[in-house]
Amino acid sequence: MGLNKEWFLDINSLAGYNHLLDEIMILSAKTTPFIFAIILIYLWFSKRKNESLFAFYSAMMGLLLNQIITLIYFHPRPFMVHIGTLLIHHKPENSFPSDHATLTFSIAFMLLMFKSTRIIGIFAFLLALLCGIARVYVGVHWPFDIIGGFFVGLISAIIIYSLKEKLQKLNDIAIFIWNKILGVKN
Question: Where are the alpha helices (DSSP H) in the chain?
Fold first, then answer.
């Protein structure tokens, strides 16, 4: 746990000294997945339904991979081994890889793969980085949990992108149903 613990302490040792910074990091650690949901909804309504759906699939793939990893490997959260300053309450459960990091990086990487969403993908990637750092800052994750989420997110996006031709049929059905519900003619 040498480097992981060292990096954790470097980041988490800043917690509790600056109220404004603490509040920003708590907000980032808790709400970033909701911002990503808003991004996907925005894309859906801005005529980038396919990109929104692919990013959603990437996030679901990432979270599925996390569940598989969790069945194989357990790593306690920092507060479970009484290290660092904890700024938010969290259940004592497996920390590796971070679901928040996986979800956000899965979406960000997927958005980066499409020219039509590359700019928002850059914004999403930076937001995912902030979320990852914030999760360490508030004491609920180790840095390696975030790095693990980064790589699971990247792998998920690559898998979904490689399957996009096959998944397009599913997208077509979802968009058709959406249009039928709204009464939109194709």
Answer: 2-12, 19-45, 49-72, 99-112, 118-137, 143-162, 164-182
- Selection from 78, 75, 102 nearest residue 90 by Cα: 78
* Model pTM score: 0.93
pLDDT level of residue 1 (50, 70, 90 thresholds): low
CB-based contacts of 41, cutoff 8 Å, min separation 6:
52
Q: Which residue type does 125 have? A: F
Rounded Cα distance between 104 and 36, Å, is: 7
Q: Which residues contact 183 (CB under 8 A, 6 or more apart)?
A: none
Is the CB of residue 136 less than 8 Å from the CB of residue 143?
yes
Tokens linked to 169: 């049929």
**Residue 110 to residue 125: CA distance in whole angstroms:** 10
pLDDT digits (tens, 9 = 90+) for 155-168: 999 999 999 999 99
Find the length of the chain: 186
End-to-end CA distance of the chain: 57
Question: What pLDDT score does 182 carry?
Answer: 82
- Calpha distance 114→117 (Å, rounded): 5
Residue 186: the pLDDT is 56
Tokens of 173: 């059905």
CA 109 to chain centre: 10
